[in-house]
Amino acid sequence: MLFDSQFQTIADVLDTTFRNLPKKQNNADRGELCELFVTEFLDQFLGNSVCVYRGGQIIDCHGNRSGQIDIVVTGPDSIRFFGNKGLYPIETVIGAICITSQLDFGKLKEDVEVLRSIPTDIRSFAIRPTGLKSMDDYTRSQINKSLPYRAIFGFDGTINQEWSKHFRKLVEDGVRQDQLPWTVAVNKKAFVQQYQPSEKTAPQPDTPFMPFRYFELRKFPKKHFPLSLMIHRLFYLKFLIAQTIPNYPLYFRQGTSPPYEIIDGSMVYDGQSNAPTKKAMRPKKHVKK
Question: What is the pTM of this model?
Fold first, then answer.
């Protein structure tokens, strides 16, 4: 298929470009170049439908912030502070991706802690109404469960079967599964994928559910699979984020008088639960006395 050949070419180009970097180049410069390579890849496939930034911190309206994220993907209408290496409101973030030139177990644990630091417990947004409460409730639950997409991508490394066991142990020890990465991959070598239980994937009573599974790409005919998986997931989640209206006044509330606020997931204008009519939004005419 056409997309398969495109993604395979990207995987090959990323691998070749990385291996052609000067051997004596310091790790910081190599890391910066690796971030740039993946940023360009995401821009190529997602285009204007999202914004891809080279790093920064994700914040919530109470001032909580994540560690430094290598690549942040937001909706196209997201407000951002300082652009690249800036601050991004959690209500607008679609993806958070850690990039490394050499991914080993020590680096994995560091990146997992960074992704877990993303403040997702306090989000303030309204759902663009569809007229069906059940659909609106489903959208909200999917946003809270699935956003942002977390991933760790290495250009080279020592990924192995024990990594999936490590993630399963974290969940057993009480770590929230939604705070862990959905995808951990070393290009063209192997990847670990997170799975959420559902009716389709629910195992038989005597078969335990496996929330993290390890796949060796040498056994796959499509060694680009983690890259295509990343694009597919981000492309789906951008439609979810498009159904929301962030409560930006909470980020600017000091010294401001916002025209609306969000209460129980609904936009409230001057105490009224319905959006203002066109007539109400027209400026008042000046009346001479």
Answer: 0.80
Q: For a pLDDT cut of 90, what percent of the chain falls above it?
A: 28
Q: Does residue 189 have a pLDDT over 50?
A: yes
Q: Where are the domains of the chain?
A: 2-259
Residue 132 tokens, joined: 């069906």
pLDDT for 96: 96
Q: How far is CA 192 from CA 29, 217, 253, in A?
A: 27, 11, 42
Are 101 and 18 contacting, i.e. CB atoms less than 8 angstroms apart?
Answer: yes
Strands 212-216, 125-127: pairing is unpaired
The token pair at 69 is 């994220």
Let me know: does 115 contact 168? Beta carbons within 8 Å: no
Tell me what pLDDT residue 28 has. 75
Does residue 82 sit in helix, strand or coil?
coil
User: What are the tens digits of pLDDT across the range 64-79?
Assistant: 999 999 999 998 877 7
* Residue 149 tokens, joined: 């997409």
Rounded Cα–Cα distance for residues 271 and 253 (Å): 17
d(CA 99, CA 37): 10
Nearest to 38 by CA among 57, 20, 17: 17
Task: Count CB-CB contacts under 10 A for residue 265.
Answer: 15
